[in-house]
Design goal:
The protein has 343 residues and is α/β, with parallel strands linked by helices. The protein is built from nine helices and 15 strands. A nine-stranded mixed beta sheet has the order 14-13-12-11-7-10-9-8-15. It has a six-stranded parallel beta sheet with strand order 3-2-1-4-5-6, sandwiched between helices. Helix 4 runs parallel beside helix 5 (107-120), helix 6 runs parallel beside helix 7 and helix 7 (184-200) crosses helix 9. The mean pLDDT is 93.
């Protein structure tokens, strides 16, 4: 087996620029040999930003890239509605796939993606990046290690005063369009519901409310959810694109203490019963391998992916159940995927 994985980048927008390209350039095992975008000017722009990509081949049709023989694997960085069809096509071509979250907009599509990767014997990894983030992973490790006793409640609020097509990625209006499977729940919610699962394990049921009134778009811009986990514990998730000043905290409560962290530079804080009123802080954390490094290692047989397709499907199920509950006005069951151990 070769020591270098040839990567094709499908979609050259903001997430490619901010995460995937710098992530691959730092792996030492992966090289980006091809770019694909329906806008040639975007490919030229990333080549100017990243001189290491000067020799990458350019395609405006992903099918041509998949058939080119120039890549061993692809990263799918396109709008949400493209994730499933492009991943299925790449698997059919025998290519490994790192797909941006959400992996799909339906559990049927997510299951089809997992099964396609299994049939093709290729790695399917979903870019649930919190699994590779030192702060979130340390938080989850502390909660699961017994530092706070048995976790029984987790709470997360993540809010801002603006949509990503205005702030983070100006002009990327698919973020707020139902036709492209946009919306707050599948953008940020899929990260935060997954972070809560890292602490509590799988959820059995959820009650949710979604709102689309405040910004007059056709996808949710405010979300509230209540989870019941298999361990008997509970969770509360609040998300907003319309919150003046913003807010952001993740908290876990256990029988012997509690944990709290913010989403900026604030350290994790641990309070333990019987050890005084001052928390222990964790300001400096050991870096973790990024998603692209782990993907390359999994392809080369040097380890397993931390966020395979099954993992991405679990995160998706936690979000789609919120939408379903909001439609019918009652608790709904979370549809778990059968056939993969818990991760």
């Amino acid at each position: 087996m070769a020591d270098t994985v040839r990567i094709g980048l499908v979609g050259c927008g903001k997430i490619a620029e901010a995460d995937h390209i710098p992530g691959y350039l730092g792996t030492g095992t992966c090289t980006i040999t091809a770019l694909c975008d329906i806008r040639p000017e975007r490919m030229e722009a990333v080549k100017r930003m990243f001189p290491a990509l000067q020799d990458a081949a350019c395609f405006t049709d992903s099918a041509q890239l998949f058939a080119s023989g120039l890549v061993d694997a692809v990263t799918v960085c396109t709008p949400n509605d493209c994730h499933a069809p492009q991943t299925l096509a790449a698997c059919a071509a025998g290519l490994h796939v790192l797909c941006e979250k959400p992996m799909a907009a339906s559990l049927a599509d997510a299951t089809a993606m997992v099964e396609a990767a299994r049939r093709a014997a290729v790695v399917l990894q979903i870019n649930q990046t919190l699994r590779y983030n030192a702060q979130y992973q340390t938080f989850a490790d502390l909660a699961r290690s017994g530092a706070i006793g048995e976790p029984f409640h987790v709470r997360c609020i993540r809010g801002g005063n603006g949509t990503p097509n205005v702030g983070w990625s100006p002009g990327a209006d698919w973020f707020v369009q139902k036709a492209h499977n946009g919306g707050l729940l599948l953008d940020i919610g899929i990260h935060m519901a997954d972070a809560m699962r890292m602490v509590m394990g799988d959820a059995d049921t959820v009650a949710g409310l979604v709102d689309t009134r405040l910004t007059h778009i056709d996808v949710p811009d405010n979300v509230s959810a209540l989870y019941r986990y298999r361990n008997g514990g509970t969770g509360v998730l609040e998300l907003s694109w319309t919150m003046p000043g913003g807010a952001g905290y993740l908290e876990a409560y256990g029988t012997a203490g509690r944990l709290r962290m913010g989403f900026t530079a604030q350290p994790i804080e641990l309070w333990q019963e019987g050890k005084g009123d001052q928390p222990v802080s964790f300001p400096e954390l050991q870096p973790r391998d990024n998603s692209q490094t782990v993907f390359g290692a999994a392809i080369l047989g040097r380890g397993r992916s931390l966020t395979p397709g099954e993992y991405g499907r679990r995160a998706l199920a936690l979000c789609l159940a919120v939408e379903a509950s909001s439609r019918i006005g009652t608790f709904v069951k979370v549809e778990h995927f059968d056939g993969e151990e818990d991760i």
